[in-house]
Amino acid sequence: DADVTQTPRNRITKTGKRIMLECSQTKGHDRMYWYRQDPGLGLQLIYYSFDVKDINKGEISDGYSVSRQAQAKFSLSLESAIPNQTALYFCATSDTGAGETQYFGPGTRLLVL
Amino acid sequence: SQKIEQNSEALNIQEGKTATLTCNYTNYSPAYLQWYRQDPGRGPVFLLLIRENEKEKRKERLKVTFDTTLKQSLFHITASQPADSATYLCALDPSGAGSYQLTFGKGTKLSVIP
User: Nearest C-alpha of chain A: how many angstroms from B42?
Assistant: First the structure.
């Protein structure tokens, strides 16, 4: 089984809808991250969480919110989706300690019409 | 402004040759730099990490160098194979304090031609 899973893998929604992307991990890591990837722009950090009670904004958090329900679960919400949120979204985890590598999920492809 | 740049969007090389990918950064003083591989439609996969006090790191056919004076990392794949075709991303810690965040380059798409 995959260590970092994301659901759904693909999602089509309409402008103004609220949607949630979910991430689960079995690696036992405290740190979890949400990124979006757009062609030509690379990975951009949306939110990150160092533990269940610690959530921080990344470089592009506007229009997004997150919830860390448990050590293993970190969900990303788009309260009112807009077309420029169409992108590939990745969840990642890392262990404690500086320099620890990040382990990515398979991604969720989101299309906002 | 802070920038992390990978030398080219795409690189084509012949099978068996050495591929060299470049990552340059400005206005950062990272404590470490990482390289990831990403296949189409998949999440990045970690390959190598090199710290600021290390000049070179190797893993099988992969070699990474880190020159903090030039603010540059080079990523080499020797005896390249078609299976090495992928996009390669460099990433660094933006704070330089050994933080837990990463800033990623846009990647270089490597194609190894049989």
Answer: 5
Q: At B3, is the pLDDT very low, low, confident or very high (cuts 50, 70, 90)?
A: confident
Whole-number Cα distances in Å, A44 to A38, A74, B58, B97: 9, 17, 28, 20
**pLDDT over threshold 60, residue B69:** yes
When scoring A25, A43, A108 by the number of chain B Cβ atoms within 10 A, the one with the most, hence best to mutate, is A43
Three-state SS for A85?
helix
Q: How confident is the model at residue A98 (pLDDT cuts 50, 70, 90)?
A: low
- Dmax (CA) of chain B: 43
User: Are B49 and A106 a contacting pair at CB < 8 A?
Assistant: no
